[in-house]
Fold this sequence. Notes:
The termini are far apart. The chain has helices at about 35, 75-80, 80-90, 95-110, 115-120, 130-140, 155-180, 195-200, 215-225, 235-245, 250-260, 265-280, 285-290, 315-330, 335-345, 350-355, 360-370, 380-400, and strands spanning about 5-10, 10-20, 25-30, 55-60, 65-70, 70. It contains 18 helices and six strands. The chain has about 425 residues and is mainly alpha-helical. The strands form two sheets. It has a three-stranded antiparallel beta sheet. A three-stranded antiparallel beta sheet has the order 4-5-6. β4 and β5 (about 65-70) form a beta hairpin. Helix content is about 50%, strand content about 5%. Bound molecules: s-citryldethia Coenzyme A. S-citryldethia Coenzyme A binds next to α17.
Amino acid sequence: MVDQVTFKAGGNDRAYNVLTGSVGPQVVDIRKFYAETGMFTFDPGFTSTASCESALTYIDGDEGVLLHRGYPIGELAEHSSFMEVSYLLLNGELPSGAELDTFKSTITRHTMLHEQLMTFYRGFRRDAHPMAIMCGVVGALSAFYHDSTDIADPTHRKISSHRLIAKMPTIAAAAYKYSIGQPFVYPDNSLSYTGNFLRMTFGVPAEKYEVNPIVEKALDRIFILHADHEQNASTSTVRLAGSSGANPFACMAAGIACLWGPAHGGANEAALNMLHEIGTPDRIPHYIERAKDKNDPFRLMGFGHRVYKNYDPRATVMQQTVRELFKELKVTDPVFEVALQLEDMALNDPYFIEKKLFPNVDFYSGVVLSAIGFPTTMFTVLFALARTVGWVAQWNEMISDPNQKIGRPRQLYTGPTQRDYVTVGKR
Ligand code: SDX
C-alpha cells in the first residue's frame, strides 16, 4: 500500500495522493493532474481508469470473485431471489422478511404501463428487433412521468427507480408479444416478479397459464446473475448520461442501447448463434483456429472479459443452471454438448490460456434461455430487464455522490492544426 505517487515532468516532481478502498486496487487521485502539468492522461477503453467511487459491486478478475454489497454471487444465486438482490443493491443490506414483503408489493403495484404507451409498439414493424423496441419504449417513459423526473428530489428518484424495475418485465414481454403477433398479456400481481414476466411472455388470453416453478427458479437465478457488474460499458453509459442531469428513463434507454452491442450484452445472442453455426463438435477446431487468426474478425462469443482473467463466476452458476434445468425438464440440446466441448478445447489451447480467455456470463445463458423458450432476439432484452436494477442503483449512487460532476473526458488531438479557409475556386 502506498500513500502517494510522484510524477517527474520537465524537472518538476508532482506528488499525487493514493486513495484506498475497502478491497481491491488503490487509485491515484489525478483530478488536479491537468491543472498542474498541462497534460492529460491517456486511457482509451478505460483499461486503467476508475471513473467513480462505488459501494455496490466488487469484482476480483484474477480470482473470479463477484460480490454484491459484500455477498458472493454464488451464495446469492443459491439462496436469494432477484427481488431480494434488487433490495440489497438499492439499499445496501439484505432485507428483513417484512422489508422484503413491502418492497415486493411496492414493485408489484407499478407493473402496469400507461395504456397510451402500449400504442407505441404499433409504430414498429413486427420484425423489429426487440432491443430496438426496448430503446424506444423505455425512452418514451420520459414522456409519461413528469411527476417524477426531478432527480434532485429523493422521492422522485425512488418512485422512478421502482417504476423502472417494475415496468421492464411488462415492456419486455410486450416487445416479444408484438414480434409474434400475439396480444399483450397484462400483469397478474398475484404472481412473483419472475412468474409474472413468464406469464406475460408465454401466456395467452385464450388459456390459463400455469407458471412452471422449475423454470421460474432458473430464470430468477439468471436475473440475479445479470443484476449488476461494476462499471461495465452500459452502466458507465447510464452514469455518463445521468451526470448531465438527464431523467432516469432517458438514462436507462441509453444503457439499453449500449448493452445491445455484441461485445457487451449482445454477446449472449451472438454466442448461441455461434454455437448453432458450429453445429457439431467435429467443427469446433476450425472455429477455434478462426478465433486465433488475427486476420479473421471472428471471436468466440461468450469468451473473454475486460476484468475476469479467470473463470467468470456467473458462467459457473449458469452452466450448473443448464444442467439442473435439463435434468428437471428432462430435455437435452446438442448445442449444450457443443458448448461444453468448445469450452474444454479452448481452455486447453495455449492461445486462450496465454490471453486468459475464459467463458463469461454470456456463454451458457443462451442455451438455458433457449430451453425455456425464448428466441435468441430476446436474450439481450432479458439481460437489460435484469440489469435495470443495477443501472438504477448505480444511477442513484452517482446522483447522491457529493463528488459527482458532469462527465467530460478530453482527448489526444491528432487532426490538422489551424489553417485558413480556401474558397472552392482555389481548391
Ligand atoms: C459482458 O464489462 C462487463 O462487466 C461486461 C459484462 C457485464 O456483466 O456487464 O460482464 C457482460 O459484456 C461480457 C462480455 C461479452 N462479450 C463477448 O463475449 C464478446 C467476445 N469477447 C470479446 O470481444 C472481448 O473478450 C471483450 C470485449 C469481452 C473484452 O475485450 P478487451 O478487454 O478489450 O480485450 P481485447 O479485445 O483487447 O482482447 C485481448 C486479447 C486480444 O488479442 P491481442 O490483440 O492481445 O492479440 O484477447 C483476444 C483479442 O483478440 N480476445 C479474443 C476474444 N476476446 C479477446 N480472441 C478470441 N475470442 C475472444 N472471445
